[in-house]
Amino acid sequence: xxxxxxxxTTRDIDAILIPLGTPVIIPENAQVAxxxxxxxxxxxxxxxxxxxxxxxxxxxxGFGEKQADAVKAEVKTAHGPVDETLVWEALKTCFxxxxxxxxxxxxxxxxxxxxxxxxxxxxxxxxxxxxxxxGMGPFIVDDVRAKTLEVENVTEVNVDLVFEPPWDRAMMxxxxxxxxxxx
Length: 183
Fold this sequence. Notes:
Layout: E1 6-8, E2 13-18, E3 22-26, E4 31-38, E5 41-46, E6 49-54, H1 65-68, H2 84-91, E7 109-117, E8 120-127, H3 137-149, E9 156-161, H4 174-179
Parallel strand pairs: 8-9
Antiparallel strand pairs: 1-4, 2-3, 2-6, 4-5, 5-6, 7-8
């Protein structure tokens, strides 16, 4: 689907109002425009507001069922060490729903390290948000946890959300600055 193209929802959709983080329901037959399709979630414009739609609801936006399949929960066990490079790659699939740049290139992730625990491997992540009062913060943190848990041998994820040092644009990668027209 082309970004900005108006589509009609095929059923009610649970969504999150951006930037407040307030749950909303986008009703069946609502006219929405997709503004961002990144990291397995969708940002849509509906009635002059932005909302985040989870990938499991992609069918209601006109995407095929294969894209809408929810990931089934499974009990994971570790069979070896965690490759932290793979964790960083997983974090590059997490996006702020208002900014089309991943959280790593935005400079929101300060530290990642794996720790052996009794039942496997925990990954400790220290990160921040672009603004301390960001209503989407809990949803971004949930994405970080979920996508890190998909990495081989990761059985637990702990996210420490910090605001020191405060985030600023200088923390962005050159690629992110270029993508956002800040060069």
